Amino acid sequence: MRFSVRLCPPRDLLLISCIAVCFPSSDGALKEEHRAICPVTEIEAKEGDDVILQFHVDPPVNLSAFTMDWSRTNPSVVVYSYRHQQESHNAEMNATVRREDLNRGNLTLWIPSVQMSHSGKYTGFVMDLGIKCSVQLNVTKDKLKKQKGHDDLSTTGAPLNTTVEKVGPRGDMMLIIGIVLSCGVTLLLIVVVLGLLGKLKGFVRRCRGGTSHQMIPLKIKPSYEI
Predict the structure, then answer these.
(1) CA distance 222 to 211
(2) pTM for this structure?
(3) Which of the four pLDDT bands, split at 50, 70 and 90, describes residue 155?
């Protein structure tokens, strides 16, 4: 039995090569594509707050073996990077990504105690997937906290040169009793003073009466001679 092999002409071989290049195999066509989910694109924060910049990969994929980073513009600086399963942080910000989040496909960045100098646009980028997520962070002065601290200071005690009075039924009764006692003491003092003045006046009169000389008329009986 003889077998014959039919060879494709060169023109057909060229056509087959073009199809292979322009239309990948079914395995490549079925490869799952991922996209970045950015729940919040702008965040307002106060100085001292802890901030979370969310970045989710959909569908979820384990990112622990990928290469990725978070960077900030104006000024441009890398605040977090992940290379060969090793992470590095910016010393000024100490921002980090949780390892358990990477396993779930989250590149969420945690920034503790933000300052006004941390304001800017932050971009997370997964190089292996070619996806990124950007968030604008605006940090302002914590005026509410300062005002609250001022109010707390003002309520800790009464200011100088001021008096604090508590008014109530008991306070009113004590005030009335105080007034009555004051009036009674005043009247008693007046009576005592008047009594002393009366005694002093009588004493003076007696003294004057003992020292004065009164003329006593002499009665002379007439004598009769016999």
Answers:
(1) 34
(2) 0.51
(3) very low
